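FAQ: What does the model actually see?

It sees only this:
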Amino acid sequence: MLAIFFVCLCLGTNVHAGVIATTSTTTDLVDTIVTSALFDEAAELKNIAETCFNNNNYEELAGYTVRSDEARILGHVLLGASLEAIGLTELRATLNLEPLPKWKHCFIPWPTDSDLASAPSLQAYYDLKEPRSFSRCLDNPFLFEHNVTPAIAYLDKRFPAIRKIFKLRFKKVRESMELVDRTAVNVMIHEFYEVHKRVDRAMGKLTLRKYPDCPETID
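And it is asked to produce this:
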């Protein structure tokens, strides 16, 4: 178990902050944080960050396949993979593209400018540009793809605001553009990184909470 934990540390201080940009995209987007009479994004992120997440929660997140300390270690990876899957699912839906595909190998060459220019469709262009992560690929040393399914379901139940934040932010950006073209794809992917960064930061705080700050309780 200590060996697994050491590998987690080697992957980064915050294990689930691992989304890799396929290209560097610069935009002049204004802050699109969603605040309305019905939904306050900042308040929802604060609520996530201050949530007590104990061993019971980690065990449920892992689909009750492991217990206690091992569930916590696995939970860090599951949180990252689940967050990315939720965000990318909503991104594809907003762009009216195909659903998120099955996992592929991580070590696929980065697309060249020629690859992008010759993409035969918007779907093909997006597939080349979509953010990649070691948390969501066949080379992941910790997870099978089916391990992430119960984790996504748990996040949707425990923190429905996560999916809603992605959905509303993407909708707001999409409505500011007339066409869904390659430029729109680039802008929306940039927005994914911005939203992912904020939500991941909040989730990183909840994973730092440990007993006795978070006593074991029945939710």
